[in-house]
Amino acid sequence: MGDLATLLLLLMLLAIAGTWLTLSRARDKAIQEARSRCYQHGLQLLDETVGLSGLRLRRLGGRRIIERRYSFEVSVDGNDREAGHLWMIGNELTALILPTIELYTPEQDGASSPHAPAEGDGNVLPFRRPVRDRDVRH
Fold it and tell me: Residues annotated as region Disordered (predicted)?
């Protein structure tokens, strides 16, 4: 009886280690996705950290699959912090949520605030790439 209990304990430890390794590889893939998407949209991935923040069951092709949510923080210029999220099934990115950020651009000289939406736009702020010192020609 003692051998059976030892075997079950060993199998349980192996299952825990396997699950941990699988989730660790999935997190590494999420970090790669977040880094590349932030670069693509002109954002900085802050602290290079992406953490698992949620799980949900999703029906896909008649099957229920676990979808993982990872959260991270991004910045436009290093002085602000905004939350970003991505959803993954396996190693596939299924959804990406990045903050909508409007930066001051020369076209907005008449605006009262650099972050104010244009008249008639409602609450939708278009994303604008950051204007950095090296981009401005004197």
Answer: 107-138
- The model's pLDDT over 46-91, given as tens digits with 9 standing for 90+, comes to 887 898 899 989 888 889 988 999 999 988 877 888 888 899 988 8
Euclidean distance between CA atoms 120 and 30, whole angstroms = 37
Choice between 121 and 12, residue whose per-residue pLDDT is larger: 12
CA distance 36 to 61: 28
Specify whether the backbone of 18 is left (phi greater than 0), alpha (psi in -120 to 50) or beta.
alpha
Asked if residue 66 lies in contact with residue 54, where contact means CB atoms within 8 angstroms, the answer is no
What is the structure's pLDDT at 1? Answer: 59
Q: How far is CA 19 from the centre of its chain?
A: 22
Q: Which of 117, 121, 76, 77 is nearest to 99 (CA)?
A: 76
Contact 34, 72 (CB under 8 A): yes
